[in-house]
Amino acid sequence: MIIFQCEDSVDGIFSAVYDAWDSGLGHANVALRLQTQADLELFAEYRMVPTDADKAKKVARSVRAKMGMDAYQTIWQAALSADPGKAEHIYRVLVRGMSARTPATEARRLIWGLQDKDVCRIFELSRRTGNEARRYIEFVRFRELENGVLYSEIQAENQVLPMIGTHFADRFPNEDFMIYDVGHNDCLIHGRARPWFILRDTRPQPEAGERLSEHEQEMQQLWRNFCRSISIEARENRRLQQQFWPLKYRRWMTEGQ
Amino acid sequence: MRLAEGKSIYEKLEILSDAAKYDVACTSSGVDRGGSGRGIGNCSAAGICHSFSADGRCISLLKILFTNECVFDCRYCVNRSSNDIERVAFTPEEVCRLTIEFYRRNYIEGLFLSSGVLRNPAYTMELLYQTLRKLRQEYHFEGYIHVKVIPGAPQELIERTGFLADRMSVNLELPTAESLRRLAPHKSRQRILTPMRQVQLARRANKNELAVFRNAPQFVPAGQSTQMIIGATPENDFQILSVAESLYRKFELKRVFYSAFVQVTQDALLPSLPGGPPFLREHRLYQADWLLRFYGFEARELLSEAHPNFNVFLDPKCDWALAHLERFPVEINRADYDTLLRVPGIGPKSARRIVRARRMGSLDFPDLKKAGVVLKRAIYFITCSGRQMYPLKMEEDFILRNLLQSRETAPAETATYRQLSLFDAGQMLGPVPPQLLQTGVQ
Questions:
Q1: Is A254 close to B367, i.e. CB distance below 8 A?
Q2: Which residue from B166, B175, B218 is spatially nearest to B193, judged by alpha carbons?
Q3: pLDDT grade for B414, boundaries at 50, 70 and 90
């Protein structure tokens, strides 16, 4: 068994898919693992795959062409998940979908076949990541800093930043904003009227996030008051509230503290 | 006018959000619009909730009244003119600033602007229009705006406002004209339905215009909604649901909201509700509303003159399925989409996944679970490749008891329990308790 180890990123996984396929060892004899994997396997040879943007791009392009945009989106979201076994599942699905023996019509439907164990896992991971990203589109709270930058901190389980960047850039085209994912140590950065990007393994200076603008406290107070006064006492139902708004998100939110 | 002067923005927001909270609609759905790149904001078709208040309702929009001063005296309303409360009003500038500053911080999805009637409907509507115009044209706000139509405002003003808003709504308030006459003497069915029809016709005309000129301004792109108060007047569920159905069909409404009557003012004409507001009834109406809009049901399939109220123990879909056992079990690998949709525990999403997945091979029960089917409800009504998950009886009483066992929806004080027998699961032990008989499921 030859194990291809890759970086925990979409490009990293796609590069490993490329290399594993290209190695000509036979799909049954290779496996994909993340480099963060702690327990190494006996009787296996490990090969470290360097992340290669060109290879990743080629894989992405051919997946889109043969399996369709929906399938690509699902696989891409699964690749952003926190699941340690995701690389292997993605590889198995791509082996089925991209094989020359699979006719194009079947390849396009492949992602619907929840009967298959790997497809099902990819579907679950993708749904989970997508749901979390949707939550953060709702729950990201910006605060305005002294220099006019909108700053937010989140702590996500999966790598949601690539999934929410487009939404916020479209929403605030003329704002400078930054979202820092505390758990992954990643920063999403958007400059006024410029494209957004992600800086990995970057921690902003902690005290920079505390220098608030003049009206920031006032707005936060207004918002907290609003959240209190909009609730109908006769209908109070904390359990229902918590079901929609789990406690783990509140720590980072203006009205949740 | 009795407007208090010199109130701070804190006090105004407190009073005017408190006064707006009995309006149910807080949805930001119905329109997909990317940002133009020049302003601030966009809209997503599914709507986005940003927070949840202590009553478990979503906070999506900055829901406020422009003013809580009102010349009308509707008996159920906290802002009725005879009620002795503090009256304040925002300025358009204040509303714009709050909206933009909240929006920038991702607190909200947009603005929900309603108002009491200041001086007269035309004057109030003009104020709302001016606020929206400022927000859209001076602040370049491209997020979601839901605005109330003030019944009795001039047509031309409603039309101008509609080109700035995403959704408009006129509240039906009460399900029948008779109840409206009793409780809202200043409003009439006529005055509520007229602007509703006007918005509907203007939307149709606008659609034709957009087909020709793609960049023509959009008129109320997210459609209109309305709301009814439940439990303040004696209508039954069948009447209410029929009203909702005809609103969807004849007025092309996007949503009808139901609001359990909460006692906020004292009035001899209002009922006293010793058991608290009818929340369970409201919940059942929403469930049925979903069945109308997404599941292809009709009001008269769910209820009838003879059976005019919903079962408190079972949701309307299970209730329907139990009354139509001749249509079940449904074979998962063959039934068409519409048939699948009628099975309790299967919704539009899982039905779509089933239809897609079975093209790749036959499905079994574990696969259904992965597709999102709620098996604890569905197992009584389906087969996979001709087999049931467990050997289950197709008997109304047996299924009813099993469905009730795993449910928490039955109110504790009226729930009736019967001892299950290990050896004779399908048999009734003793007579049917009267509460169960009353629900219409025997």
A1: no
A2: B175
A3: very low
